[in-house]
Design brief:
Number of helices: 17
Radius of gyration: 26 Å
Largest sheet: 7 strands, mixed
CATH architecture of the largest domain: 3-Layer(aba) Sandwich
CATH class of the largest domain: Alpha Beta
Structural class: alpha/beta
CATH superfamily of the largest domain: Crotonobetainyl-coa:carnitine coa-transferase, domain 1
Helix content: 25-40%
Oligomer: single chain
Strand content: 5-15%
Length: about 400
Amino acid sequence: MSGNSATEARRPLDGIRVVDLTRVLSGPFCTMLLGDMGAEVIKIESDRGDPIREQGTVRDGFSWYFAAFNRNKQSVALDLYSAEGKAVLERLIASADVLVENFRPGILAKMGFGPERLAAINPRLVSCNINGYGSVGPYVDRPAFDFIAQAMSGLMSVNGPADQEPMRSGQPITDLIAGLYGAFGIVNALRARDLNGAGQHVESAMVNGSISMMAFLASEYFATGRLPERTGNDHPLVAPYGLYKALDGEVAVAPSNDVILRRFLTTIGLEELMAGPHYDTNEKRFALRHQLNALINERMRSVSQAEWIARLNSAGVPCGRVQNLAEVFADPQVVAQEMAIDVEQPGHGTIRMVGFPVKLDKTPCAVTRAAPELGQHTREILASSGYSDAEIAALAAQGVIVCAP
């Protein structure tokens, strides 16, 4: 299997069994992270499978979108509406360390697996619900989607130029934030179980997670009561900062304090500006940022993008160019970091996907399983949970389970 190979040392979540009731993105991203760290992830699907099995580009009969977020998992196809299917799920929960689901709050309880029932089945269980708005408050029953969470969390209100409508982030960022926080909460709950002996419930909401990412924008609002303005590629607190025009393209420059700003202006030959009466403080520069940006653009437009990037980085000024994904994955730094990996998908060829952003030198993340076919591991998982061949055959004949050939 391509990607970082596992070492002799046990990986951080080896021995942790995760029952995964999630679908689409936020939950599968959460459980993928756990699987990358060594957890055994059992993905429970209906007989139709996770909807993203049929979304995105399908090559050689397999969705690359599904493959990217469901590596390191095993698939059990199970009818959770039947009493027999619920009995199978109960047995799996009894043997699990973690249960993850991204139904709306209360749906799992309606299925017969509320907090009290889960505690009775497995008092050491760490359960996690990933949702839109949280489980308390007037919006609990609202359906959630990334675009709506971006709007409701304030994220869109600060994105885009001042004279245009609010803009969403191109990637489904609130789903990914919620999944990331879900994995973080689960790992913390497992550590707490080591210390205290009992499991607990973890909740991660798309809107809450995105609000937590508002950073200094929220701090400034709390401190001043003023709403942050949309500033496009300009910084809302610091000037100059943003995209500047070189001879053959734009350069992103981030001189976030006076020390770096002095390096920047010196490198482009405008060091005298910081000594003059108009630009000697950030407050003055911020008030006159449009004029200042014009001066910087005029000075930079006669030299190539590559030359400026080389000069500025040598001077200790953070800078770079805006890259599309083709350029990103060809970038020698990205290649060196193995941020694109090739995974052999049995029967479907090689699938390229994003690699591991977290690097552990002794127990690295690894892909040990390609994304599963629907029901690929039903028979294997049920057998390991004590079901006999005859019982498995009976459940399959009743349509309670689907076993892939």
